[in-house]
Sequence to fold (232 residues):
Amino acid sequence: MKSPSVFKALEDFQQVRDHLDPTLFVLALSASLGAAFVTSWLYRYFYERRGTGSQVHRAFPLLGISITTLFIAVQLSIPLSLGLLGALSIIRFRTPIKEPEEVGFIMLLIAASVSAATFNFLFMTLLMGMAVAALLLVRGARTWKMAVRDGVLVVQLPDVEVAQAWPRVQECLKTHMRRTMMESSSSRDGQTSFHLAFSGLKTSLSDLQTGLRAVAPIQTVNVFLDRPGGLR
Fold:
């Protein structure tokens, strides 16, 4: 004779299974697939041009519907959920995650898939909306940073000349640039390198290099532009 707890578990399982008709299941998969395509598009739009990622977005559609199906199956049976956890524990990523942003996109995909599996479509919609807003804010911050900086200037001087020559270098930079800011400095093998962010180049790069070499015994002058091809 079965105990009341067994009957209760069977009734709960039957109730959940009856509630999950094929139409609702297809709806959850469709929502998950749509969220996966949106996440893949966001990845391509915001980060694909970096060229250093593992192109993980190509797996997003299959990952989305697979995760949704797994979590729906977990809701139908507790023993099945324990078995799934044991099976999934053997899975390992063979391709390393090369960019930290990829972890964020994978977590976004998982969260959207779980929301679809639990039929919280409103939560999934709000999540994707907030993700788009967050990425736009990050893009805006990067754009603002680019707007206030034209590039980086790397100047190298002999260590013995730094004390006397550096004030003259600063005066020369004020003549040729509207704004400079020291980012870092390093010394190696008798040479000191200064890394400065700059904006508002008043003259040409050749005039800048000629002027710097005229006021100090500079070994090298390197200019790295944030926007190759032009200056404001």
User: Anything to note?
Assistant: Strands lie at 151-158, 177-188, 191-201, 220-225. The chain has two domains: 4-145, 148-225. The chain has a mean pLDDT of 76.
